[in-house]
Amino acid sequence: MNNARTATLLMYCPDQPGVVAAVTDFLARHGANVIDLDQHVDRVEGVFFMRVKWELDGFALTPEAFEQAFSEAIAKGFEASWQLHHDPNPIRMAIFVSKIPHCLYDLLSRWQSGEWRVDIPLIISNHDTLRPVAEQFGVPYYHFPITAETKAEQEAREIELLQAHDIELVALARYMQVVSPQLIQAFPERIINIHHSSLPAFAGAKPYHAAHARGVKIIGATSHYVTEDLDAGPIIDQGVTHITHRDTVQDLIRKGQDLEKIVLARGIWAHLQRQTLVYQNRTIVFG
Amino acid sequence: MNNARTATLLMYCPDQPGVVAAVTDFLARHGANVIDLDQHVDRVEGVFFMRVKWELDGFALTPEAFEQAFSEAIAKGFEASWQLHHDPNPIRMAIFVSKIPHCLYDLLSRWQSGEWRVDIPLIISNHDTLRPVAEQFGVPYYHFPITAETKAEQEAREIELLQAHDIELVALARYMQVVSPQLIQAFPERIINIHHSSLPAFAGAKPYHAAHARGVKIIGATSHYVTEDLDAGPIIDQGVTHITHRDTVQDLIRKGQDLEKIVLARGIWAHLQRQTLVYQNRTIVFG
Amino acid sequence: MNNARTATLLMYCPDQPGVVAAVTDFLARHGANVIDLDQHVDRVEGVFFMRVKWELDGFALTPEAFEQAFSEAIAKGFEASWQLHHDPNPIRMAIFVSKIPHCLYDLLSRWQSGEWRVDIPLIISNHDTLRPVAEQFGVPYYHFPITAETKAEQEAREIELLQAHDIELVALARYMQVVSPQLIQAFPERIINIHHSSLPAFAGAKPYHAAHARGVKIIGATSHYVTEDLDAGPIIDQGVTHITHRDTVQDLIRKGQDLEKIVLARGIWAHLQRQTLVYQNRTIVFG
Amino acid sequence: MNNARTATLLMYCPDQPGVVAAVTDFLARHGANVIDLDQHVDRVEGVFFMRVKWELDGFALTPEAFEQAFSEAIAKGFEASWQLHHDPNPIRMAIFVSKIPHCLYDLLSRWQSGEWRVDIPLIISNHDTLRPVAEQFGVPYYHFPITAETKAEQEAREIELLQAHDIELVALARYMQVVSPQLIQAFPERIINIHHSSLPAFAGAKPYHAAHARGVKIIGATSHYVTEDLDAGPIIDQGVTHITHRDTVQDLIRKGQDLEKIVLARGIWAHLQRQTLVYQNRTIVFG
What we know:
Largest interface: A-B, 32 and 32 residues
Helix content of chain A: 25-40%
Oligomer: homotetramer
Shape of chain A: globular
């Protein structure tokens, strides 16, 4: 929305007095005009988390110089883990889909209309079904059929392709395949999935059928980072909608799809804004 | 709200043509002015459900005469299960509590202020903690301490007491004891519990701790009829609230309590209005 | 979802005993298997409303025969207003847009993916901006530039075009032009608009700017039938989302767009399902 | 929840580089262990807002010493407005009511159960109706009948009484009287009202009747600081609930009451936690 170039720092370290003062002082000394700062202390774990965003205009340090100076001045002493992001730099995102198109349409629309500053260089699918959608939006579509026998090999090719396209973020837009550890390890905390229930309720397959059978009065959707435990990764966002006894499984699927596309989009948006930081399987989503 | 005396019929039967016509025709012939009718067909199960409410003013049948006439004219032929309720007749409700008072305060306030037409002849607790609250509202308080050894005997005494007071409905207002089968069987589909999560997520003990550990972004509460499967009974109502990483377990408990009292009250209200009908562990909640 | 051919009757009349019995009896006598029935009595206005849906398989009456028989048997005696709809019959819907594309993308996606049984023969706009989106989805796009001088003439041409395409429903998908009485009268209760606030709050232009200035903590969107009073037509659906002081006007716009497309879609869906009936500027939305 | 003694600083000033660094450095130098820090920059207005909370254990400055040192070191140079609050210090709150009791019950329950650390030394009402509720909870109840003629005089007596009891915060718990400027000026940004609509929709009297007449599908409640413009003060919190055409005005009132008590409580809670800061008729509610 704003064309000023900015940098965002995400960090955490053992909680201790003086971290905020040290970091903001460091930034001020190098000419940063801080435009957003959010911090959080997990008092139980004793961990301090911070996100700071500042204008690059007038800031004295290149990313390389920052790395060295920040490590020396702050990170070493406070034992901090940190990431620096220079934006706007459209993040390069790949989309994985199967046969159900609503999330794909939604993500492509946000990209094509310019609602999001993101590049989508490719779409990967285990089916050829949605190729026309990709073509209509002018995005290359790669079909990798997957069977139990070919899965490891096909995923290895997918990883190569993603790396060749310099992909940072992978959106699983109702991709109906369990992603294997090799792919997850290649993109740690950089694969976002949409699960069609309010996790941990109804993890696994056919959650709407399970929800209907249980007679719930609320259904949900969950966007989360993918980890090796199925549907158990760090949650970024969740949404729900009320249902009634009148709603059939088909109604749940239909109403759920509206949730899924919005909740997936909110999860991706938070990542694109560099608002997320994962710690011990939970996601800090800074304001 | 309305002083007109009314009757409500809840029924279900195998789905077949002509049920609505037969029932409404039956009521019209006996002088009923129908003021509310809601029906639902479960197409998968092939079951027809209906709730009809009519004014008693001008209606020709006493409850006894209704029983005979309706059985002959409708229930037998359609193989219908049914209940007839004459209202307003304040339903007699008992409250079970332990040590956490927010739901108790909320229910007593609704009763004392006249928001609900309900009688609350007694409160039962496994602790003596909340006796002052009961006394303040002028409701008799019975303390039944429960240990593994005394549980069966104490519950037997509770059942006697409930029956002696002609109790129809039992509200478990954060009663932290598993209710045993004998009590459930004495009040089938007439015990409403509030569980402090959005079931089936986090069934069992300490759901807020579990929710915090899982890093969810939404917490919920569920009012449901109690069955012998713990936290697995037919759901009447559910509510949720958004939380963030800033919320501690204590915050979840605090925010959750607001949900719990509202969702328990909505579940009880639906029962008091004769809007609920349980079929195969799911609750039809008529409009 | 279901391929069985069905008919839906929407009706209202002065409230009086026996209406449900008469209608359901009429349908049963002509072989209808009722699969959905919802009724509502407005006790203050003294009006009875009903929606009945039945399978056409086995039903004895053609639409023409129904008209005559129903008028004779029911409508005259009860002074009923009624509409009969035969479905599935994809409803023919036109979309009006200006320059903001998110609702357009969303509606076209639902149509193209087959989520909705609807035909979209054309898109009309007062700008040429979104022609590429229409072309990408293969839908004819008509550009009618509008100035104060040309408005009446251009709208007359639009009406002709809509009628030539046998359009039943018009969706204003963020169409930033006040629609004039002649167009509204040509499509009474058949133009659905999305307003980007929770009406009646912030009617008129720039509601997000007004919401931000007022410091609200919730923003909303409203789908409603268009009437000659600006933003005052019968509401079909509304949705809201929580915001905070951190949200700028740009954030409100972004978050609001997610609401707008979902709430517009829900409003249109209700119309497509023949669930809506307007009475005295309020919309009955049957279950 | 936590017994550690803490201090909270709320401040704002013209946005400029180095504020966070200066404040956190100031606190660190005097031995503060910051446990919560939230800041916000209104980029349009060019104003910087901050809330910092720290443990008093180990902090070197008394409130008086803080005043002088902070003014010198920070406030003068940055032209900052600020408030310092020492907690836990139960805030002294008065409740104003008329005849509708649900909010009163709710607030008294939160106080009596210890859910909130707050003192409630008195209740003031323009009617004698709810005296029994106050007595039941053991809170003194003062009845000030108000007519057009007596209003100024009665409010003057109310102000005296509030000041005599050292009241900081006034909760209007469905107090059905317009509060006049003299009372508002005596408690600036310290009177919280609950309005029974989602402001700015349906300001003024009988909002549920107006909402029903307009045919909305959502009703709301708003807690806000009272200013001299009726129902136009800075909003703290808002909540909504979905309704349908089946809901009568009585249903709206009933459902709305559940919203009102929760939204009023959330607004008061935010104030008690020193999370609120008013700037130009909008409320910053820190996380």
